[in-house]
Design a protein that fits this description.
alpha+beta, 5-stranded antiparallel beta sheet, 13 helices, 31% helix
């Protein structure tokens, strides 16, 4: 009797997880998806699905046990984009599936515990401390002798609650902002390292490792969101030298092992300090959301390492030779950032989407939508992904898209490009009349 194909439980069925669901199905596996939103697109695509909030661990386990009783060969759990290692660990441990253990999940979901672990294991990190008052922040700032500070909750992701402190008057509002986003009440202070930032994604397989995900992060124009920190996409391939790339990749892989990852994936945020070299800002025990592993790396290098992560989750043998780049193509993603107000008209998206160099374009709001203030990455309004044979041509294409698309908000046209051209508390590029 032929064994039924293995099935993968995917936590979440939104746009971030849809790529994983479809990739698993393309590999011949079945998929099971759960999501609190009954309209999540992945619920319609997965082979088995229920509108269950994945934070309801007992409810997810009951659903999986029913599927197993019905003959579904459910054999593993994973996710993309959702920072929930504790949930993945709990479900994997219950069923005896591959996955992070509870200690790894704690380190990965608590930024202070993560920093402590890195320091213990000799992984270079910016200076850091827990803080609970303005006086404590000021004292540490004087002790560290750095120009700027970063403040953030210990238990949030996606830039929620994160701010830069560059003068004493910033301390009180930044602390209040971080507290407003914190779930556990703990606030982390770090020194701000002014250097290139790199996004990495590493595959750990026993005593072997590879870092197929490697992109330069983009922060140009982010002054308009100051003191909030906002990234505007990235470049592939990296502009780091081959030796620097190898050093950063090795650091990311060491950091992943320091968190206890034996078989799995780690998403790293690395900064290159001009004086102290590469340092780890944070690391997540999961695949990134958005475009990094789903489109940027596959387009640039010809590698789909989401397949590798799925095989690891299902206990299948993997081959790191599959992660060797097949080609090198210039790829970039950029976002549309729009000020708060009523979206009254949209122009140029159809033109951009029709261009052969545009591989993806998504815009999340419709005419009549009320746009919120931009406080975190969750408030970006859209994204586009472009490819080119050279970085110079790619830069021109990015300018073309920002130049041909525009959005009318409260009677004023905007390009969606973050810029420091316009005076005001938030600065966005006006476009047209």
């Amino acid at each position: 009797m032929t064994e039924k194909p293995k099935a993968l439980l995917v936590l979440g069925a939104g746009s971030d997880q849809l790529f994983m669901i479809r990739t698993a199905q393309s590999m011949g596996y079945q998929t099971v998806a759960v999501d609190a939103n009954p309209a999540a697109p992945g619920l319609k695509v997965a082979d088995h699905a229920q509108p269950i909030d994945f934070s309801n661990i007992e409810g997810v386990i009951r659903y999986c046990e029913q599927l197993l009783a019905d003959g579904v060969n459910l054999a593993g759990v994973s996710t993309m984009g959702s920072d929930i290692p504790h949930i993945v660990a709990a479900i994997a441990q219950h069923f005896g599936w591959p996955g992070p253990d509870t200690q790894t999940a704690r380190w990965a979901s608590h930024k202070f515990a993560m920093k402590q672990r890195f320091k213990q294991m000799g992984i270079p990190v910016p200076r850091y401390a827990l803080v609970d008052s303005e006086a404590a922040i000021l004292a540490l700032w004087q002790q560290w002798h750095c120009d700027k500070l970063i403040i953030k909750p210990t238990d949030r992701a996606g830039s929620r609650g994160v701010r830069v402190i560059q003068q004493q008057a910033d301390i009180a509002p930044a602390l209040a902002h971080a507290r407003s986003f914190s779930l556990n009440g703990e606030i982390l202070l770090e020194e701000f390292i002014d250097g290139p930032q790199i996004s990495t994604e590493s595959i750990i397989a026993g005593d072997q490792a590879a870092t197929p995900g490697f992109a330069d992060r983009v922060y140009e124009g982010m002054e308009c969101f100051w003191p909030n920190i906002m990234e505007n996409g990235g470049w592939l391939p990296t502009r780091q030298s081959p030796s620097a790339k190898a050093e950063i990749s090795a650091l990311a892989e060491r950091a992943a092992r320091a968190l206890g990852i034996v078989q799995g994936v780690a998403k790293g945020d690395i900064v290159v300090c001009p004086q102290r070299g590469p340092m780890v800002i944070e690391m997540a025990v999961r695949l990134s959301g958005g475009d990094f592993s789903a489109s940027l790396v596959p387009l640039s290098c010809g590698i789909n390492y989401v397949k590798t992560v799925i095989d690891i989750a299902l206990g299948e043998q993997i081959h790191l030779d599959d992660l060797i780049p097949k080609h090198n193509l210039w790829v970039a993603n950029r976002y549309f950032f729009l000020p708060p107000g009523t979206l009254e008209a949209i122009e140029g998206l159809d033109w951009a989407e029709a261009q052969p160099f545009c591989k993806k374009l998504e815009f999340y709001a419709g005419v009549g939508a009320k746009l919120p203030p931009i406080l975190s990455h969750a408030n970006r309004t859209g994204v586009f992904v472009l490819t080119a044979d050279s970085q110079a041509l790619l830069a021109q294409q990015i300018e073309q898209v920002y130049g041909r698309t525009r959005f009318k908000i409260n009677g004023q046209w905007y390009s969606g490009r973050p810029t420091a051209m316009q005076d005001g508390p938030l600065k966005f590029a006006h476009q047209g009349e």
